[in-house]
Amino acid sequence: MGDFEKFILRGNVVDLAVGIMIGAAFNTVVQAFVKDIVTPLIPVSGAFVDWTIPIYAGHKLLVGDVINTIISFLIIAAVIYFFIVKPINALEDGYNRMHPKKEEGPTTRECPFCLSSVPLRATRCAYCTAQLPPADAPAAQMR
Q: C-alpha distances in angstroms, 143 versus 34, 90, 119, 127, 133?
């Protein structure tokens, strides 16, 4: 029981649960927006409901229902893209223009003996175990 309690109280599980709940609530908002506002503006939506293919003994394939579902999916995807993704990308671009990132220096360097890539602050090469000079030493001292 103690392990289960640790598992449930871990940050990732709680964050995931909150994300799923917000996603479900957001799904309801998007579905309502598309069903009540966007879909009535499109004359094709709902036109395929009666398309069926009879197969046997009163059973039928609901081809029109599948087509309507695909159209609904495409409408929802377009609404999410144009009303959520594009505006957020524009906001991020504006923020990045106003707050440019500082250029970071290299994080690795080349071992002068085996030419493998090692972390910048390493004192020994992980591949050939050669003693490396300090990272701030000029390249001429490495030889």
A: 67, 50, 18, 17, 9
CATH 1.10.1200.120 maps onto the chain at: 2-98
pTM for this prediction: 0.53
Q: Helix/strand/coil (H, E, C) string of the chain? A: CHHHHHHHHCHHHHHHHHHHHHHHHHHHHHHHHHHHHHHHHCCCCCCCCCCCEEEECCEEECHHHHHHHHHHHHHHHHHHHHHHHHHHHHHHHHHHHHCCCCCCCCCEEECCCCCCEEECCCCECCCCCCECCCCCCCHHHHC
Query: Residue 45: which of 63, 69, 22, 25 has the closest Cα?
Result: 69
For residues 35 and 105, what is the distance between their CA atoms, to the nearest angstrom?
51
Architecture category of domain 2-98 in CATH: Orthogonal Bundle (1.10)
Q: Provide the token pair at 133.
A: 């000079």
For residue range 26-61, list pLDDT tens digits in order: 999 988 988 888 878 877 656 677 788 888 888 888
